[in-house]
């Protein structure tokens, strides 16, 4: 089966063009103002309008208020909301109901015990994304840190909802990560950047090739 790829944190048209050309199935827009990948809604709307039918535009949020979500979704055509903060299962369900949109919940993983919460989120979210737990330092972002976790934690596991693998994926390790984890969908951000927050179109194309697109 061909692996589906999400290119997360795009911020300029060349990145969207490369992702689409290379066969990405998801394009991620970061709505978190502490991130170097943050895009304001007017630019995000411009980028989202470049995304063809068949490729989904994902809006990434961290513990958003309903007001902020409304502010964004009223301006940017999104297909999926990604929640990457400490949202509880109840809050995930509330957002899904309030916005009538599919929701993907990020689960931060560093050991097998971190998977204990998955079933509760799988009951309410449409999709799951397994990402590396961020480093303990206060300045760390909740995601997009270029850190991988032990993919064998996911080997042979099944859940009731589709899931993506993310965290520290690169051109050099993506094939191994897919083989070990069994992921059918993957997500990358810093592994296709030439500097923090800036996607390199050539790295995007090379990554998509390395992932088998
Ligand atoms: O990418 C960010 O800047 C970001 C900021 C705040 C919360 C989440 C963020 N990214 C989440 C993603 O979906 C990333 O693609 C994922 O963490 C993988 O990132 P990387 O390890 O850099 O490939």
Automatic annotation (TrEMBL):
Keywords, alphabetical: Amino-acid biosynthesis, Aromatic amino acid biosynthesis, Isomerase, Tryptophan biosynthesis
**What pathway, per the record?**
Amino-acid biosynthesis; L-tryptophan biosynthesis; L-tryptophan from chorismate: step 3/5
Give one GO biological process term.
L-tryptophan biosynthetic process
EC id: 5.3.1.24
- Domain of life the protein comes from: Bacteria
Write down the Gene3D superfamilies for this protein, in alphabetical order.
Answer: Aldolase class I
According to UniProt, the reaction catalysed is: N-(5-phospho-beta-D-ribosyl)anthranilate = 1-(2-carboxyphenylamino)-1-deoxy-D-ribulose 5-phosphate
Q: Which residues form the N-(5'phosphoribosyl) anthranilate isomerase (PRAI) domain?
A: 5-208
Give the family per the record.
Answer: Belongs to the TrpF family.
Q: What is this protein called?
A: N-(5'-phosphoribosyl)anthranilate isomerase
What is the scientific name of the source organism?
A: Skermanella stibiiresistens SB22
Q: Which gene encodes it?
A: trpF
